[in-house]
Amino acid sequence: MEFSKLIETRRSVRAYASAASKEDIESILEMAQQAPSWKNGQPARCYAVTSPEALAEVREKGLPDFNANSSAGASLIVTTFVRGISGFGPEGPANKAGNYWGAYDLGLHDAYLVLAAADLGFDTLIMGIRDAEALKSILGIPDEEEVMSVIAVGKRAKEPGSRPRKAVAEMTKFF
Ligand SMILES: Cc1cc2nc3c(=O)[nH]c(=O)nc-3n(C[C@H](O)[C@H](O)[C@H](O)COP(=O)(O)O)c2cc1C
Q1: What is the pLDDT of residues 20-36, one digit of tens each?
Q2: Ligand 1: which residue has its CA nearest to atom 30?
C-alpha cells in the first residue's frame, strides 16, 4: 500500500475475525526489525503467542477483561526491551533519560510493527494495560527485560471508528 495511505488508514481494531499465523508474524517482525535504535542496540524483544492454549492463558491472566475481549480472535505479541542497552555506554547512562531510551526504541519498533502489519493486510491493537508480572511468569520473560505492551494481530471483524488528531499547529512550535 502507498505509505501515506497506510498511515492514514491504520487504526486500532477491537474486534477480530481471524488471527495472524506464526508465518505472518515472522514476516511482520522481519520488517519491524528495520526500526532504528540507539547505536543499533536493538533492545526490543518479542514473545509471539499463537497457540490456542497459550492465547487463552495470556488473555485470562495477562490482560484485563476489556482488553481480553477486544483482542479475542487475534494472535498476541508481547513486546519488551532489555534494560541498560539503549541510552547506556561503558560508563553507565549517557544522559538522564536512562532507560527511557529503551522504551523509546521499543516504541519505534512497535510503530514499525503495526505499520508492517497493516501493509500485509493485518490489523493491530497495542495494549499498555496488562499485568506485566503475570506475562513474565507465563512466558518466562527474564528480569532484565521491561514488559511494555501486548499487541493483538489479526484481521478485523468490524470497521473501527475514526480517531481525530490534534492539528500540527496545536502541538508544534516553529523557530
Ligand atoms: C502505548 C499505547 C498503549 C495503549 N493501550 C491500550 C489499551 O490498553 N487498550 C486499548 O483498547 N487501546 C490501547 N491503545 C490504543 C489507543 O487507544 C489508540 O492508539 C488511540 O486511541 C488512537 O487510535 P488509533 O490507533 O485507532 O489511531 C494504546 C496505544 C498505545 C500507543
Answers
A1: 999 999 999 999 999 99
A2: 126
